[in-house]
Amino acid sequence: MADRFRGFLPVVIDVETAGFNPRTDALLEIAAVTLTMDENGYLMIDQSYDANVHPFPGANLEQSALDFTGIDPHDPERNALPEEEALEQIFKPIRKSIKSHGCKRAVLVGHNASFDHGFVTNAADRAGIKRNPFHPFSTFDTVSLAGLAYGQTVLAKACNMAGIDFDGKQAHSALYDTVKTAELFCAIVNTWKDMGGWDMVLATRGYQ
Q1: CA 62: distance to chain centroid?
Q2: Contacts for 144-152 with beta carbons within 8 Å, 24 or more apart?
């Protein structure tokens, strides 16, 4: 795994938020899926993690965003955690996975990855977390990859083209969207391998 992505461990992230501005709008849900590789070099889902997040003090809550996600930030049954606790609950197993795979750090995989990366980075900064496992700016975006591979950029449509079941009723749950994004990313990477693309890369680098 460490050789496949230049020492990075791909970790799929999805967030649900109360707006579009990562500096002012609340982070409400975060989910992560770590990936691993089988003995034949195929990428696959390893573990999944998720947490509901309590809005940080002074956070903006856009009603249109809440209507879209259906999240009530003040529902006690959410068992929401403060940002620092929620992020550490997600970051701790990611750090462990980075170490177990011999990687240097994680690279965030997301559908519109810059959106998720912005919210994770800003939340980590607010919480004073110094060991953010993610690369500070590099990401793998399944919007671009799916556009290239399947001619679709919407997650549900790209999954359909890839032969991945997608239940629209479960969409906009951070964990569900993360799992589906992870399945899509694995499908694209593994298809590239099956087409001989990765073997060609290895050959040019003198590994074959």
Answers
A1: 23
A2: 145/184, 145/185, 145/188, 146/184, 146/188, 149/188, 149/191
CB 84 within 8 A of CB 92: no
Q: What percent of the chain has pLDDT over 70?
A: 95
Residue identified by tokens 């239940």 is 167
The percent of residues in the chain predicted with pLDDT above 90, rounded, is 88
- Mean pLDDT (whole number) for 180-199: 92
Quote the CA–CA distance of 208 and 205 in Å, as a whole number: 8
Active site residues: 172
Burial tier of 201 (Cβ tally within 10 Å: 0-12, 13-18, 19+): middle
Of the CA atoms within 13 Å of residue 169, those in its CB half-sphere come to 0
Query: Length of the chain in residues, anyone?
Result: 208
Give the separation between CA 184 and CA 170, rounded to whole angstroms: 16
